[in-house]
Every structure is written in C-alpha cells, then in structure tokens.
Amino acid sequence: MQATKLSTKIKPIHRIPVIIISGFLGSGKTTLLNGLLSHAPKSAVIINEFGATGIDQHLLRQHKVPLSTLVGGCLCCQVRGSLTPLLKNLRMAWDANNNYFERVIIETSGIANPESVLDILLKDRWLSARYSVQSAITTVSAIMDVQHFERFPEVAAQIAWADSVVLTQTDLADAFQQQSIQAKLDQLAPAAMHLMAVQGDIDVDVILNTGKKIRPLLKDKLPLLAAHAFNTISVPLPVAMSWQQLHTALSYLTTYYSEQLVRLKGLVYTPECPQPLLIQGVAGRLYLPTRLAQRVSDDGVGRLVVIYTGDIANFAEIILAQCAITRS
C-alpha cells in the first residue's frame, strides 16, 4: 500500500500596512491625519507628543478609531521603548477581534526622526512579519523659515527619510516662500513624491495608495542626530480668561520669546464659550482658536504646552504672570 502524502499549507500571515506621518512642529501633521481618517476610518492611530500633556488627540475626537498616545518624549529617543509593545498589543487585538482595522497610522512628535520608527518596524522580526511600511510621509510648512533647515537638523532628517512630502499652509505663503522651501525639498528628497495641500485639502487617495512596494533595507542617509536641544513645559490655566485677554498674553509671549518659543498649543476655557478652545502658535505666529465639542469628562481646567529652545528660567511662572497681568 502506497503511503498517502500529507500536504500542509501554512497560511501566510497578513501584514498590516503602516503609514508614518512626520513633520516639524506646527507643520500640519494632525490636519493631514484628520483628512486621512475621514477617507480611511478603519485605521488605528498612534500619536506621539513631545510634551507631557497630550493635545493633538482632541482634534481627532470625531473619529471613532482605536487611538493610543505616547507623551513625554520622542519615539526616536525617550519613548522609543514603548512603541514595540504597543504595536504588539495592537496586533494581538487585531487577531482577536476579527481584523477590526485595516491600517496603522503613526504620527510622530514634531522633533522626532522617523528613522527610528522605520528601524523598529523593519528590523524587529516579530513586527516585520506582521506589519509592512506602506508610506513615510513628511509635512513641511510653506511658511517655515528656511533657516530652520540649518538651525534644526531634525527638519532635514524628517524630509530625507520621506517617500512622500506634503507642502502645507501654501495659502499663507507668497511665491518666493514657496519657491525657497521647494528648492530645499528638491535638494533633500529628490526621489520623493511631492504633494501640495491647499487650505488643508489634499488628494487623500494619492497618499493612501502610495508606497505599496516593500521598502528597501535602511541605508545611511544621514549621520546620527545629536541629542535635541528642545525643552517643554505644561502649564495649567485653572482660571478662565476671556479670549481677548488670553490672546493678548499669548501674543506677548510669542513676540517677546520669538527666537526661543518654537511651538505653543493648548486647550483652554473662556467665559464666552462653554466648549473648550484649541489654541496653536508656531515661531512667533498665533493662530485663531478652534472650537471643540464639549465632553462630560472635561474638567474645565485649561492646559498650555510650550516647546522652546535654550534655558528660560521660571518660564512657567512667567507665562502665568503674564496671564494674570492681562486678566487684571
């Protein structure tokens, strides 16, 4: 009797695509992420914020997606060790819950080098068997000072590692500014796909269908970055201020500390509006606030996160004192 040959086929493991969104402070990463989620709601999201208090997730409240936050440092250094177990837990939840999301989108902090995230996804054997890097996207503000390319090496690193570069805030830039930034992008990422967002709008389908092929092994594009020179503080604002008072105080801070204050964002409450207001400022520029939907869990305490360079003694006290002056 002839022995029957048993044929066993091992079902290939499905690899979940990952989109990495990087970009310097205030370049529009969360705005881009909002647009992606509107077109691709079946996504799991990981947000990394340099400050100890997370703010960006409040802009994603309307999207009912699995959302994880990593705060208090960058994925490329302080909280790098937290990403691997988080991705493993997400994958195990995906296996146990009937594939309830189709992709993972990682938004890094504004000063993170995406190389470290790529390194984790491509070199960890367990993760690389279960995740694939679909695209590494970097947002670049058209109104960014071109001196930032020299002053902050993180900017160049974020662009150099991208396979897609999105030029944002073009409606706020003149032709010379756009040409200056575009020249830098052509120099740092000549092979990347260059896209332009107009008043926050972009062809999301192009991004979602970019980078389908497997990414090559990492190569030495740039030297390792030295430890960054950024500091961050989180300042509670327990007393409600009118928007005019708050705007006056923040305008003073962004003007007086324009060289050191790189990024300002916060969630604040004003007597004029029951809903919390999201405020944002970048390098001396203060934007109009965004009104968010009120939630039962809101405690009514405003929070201001400031990212700055150099050593500013008692900066938190200075901020609170300036708010007190405008309130009196």
From TrEMBL:
Keyword Nucleotide-binding: yes
Domain of life: Bacteria
CDD domains in UniProt: CobW-like (cd03112)
Domain CobW C-terminal: 230-324
Record-linked SUPFAM superfamilies: Hypothetical protein YjiA, C-terminal domain, P-loop containing nucleoside triphosphate hydrolases
Hydrolase among keywords: yes
A GO cellular component entry from the record: cytoplasm
Keywords: Chaperone, Hydrolase, Nucleotide-binding
Catalytic activity: GTP + H2O = GDP + phosphate + H(+)
Molecular-function annotations in GO: hydrolase activity; nucleotide binding
Function statement: Zinc chaperone that directly transfers zinc cofactor to target proteins, thereby activating them. Zinc is transferred from the CXCC motif in the GTPase domain to the zinc binding site in target proteins in a process requiring GTP hydrolysis.
UniProt family annotation: Belongs to the SIMIBI class G3E GTPase family. ZNG1 subfamily.
Protein name: Putative Uncharacterized GTP-binding protein yjiA
The species this protein was found in: Crenothrix polyspora
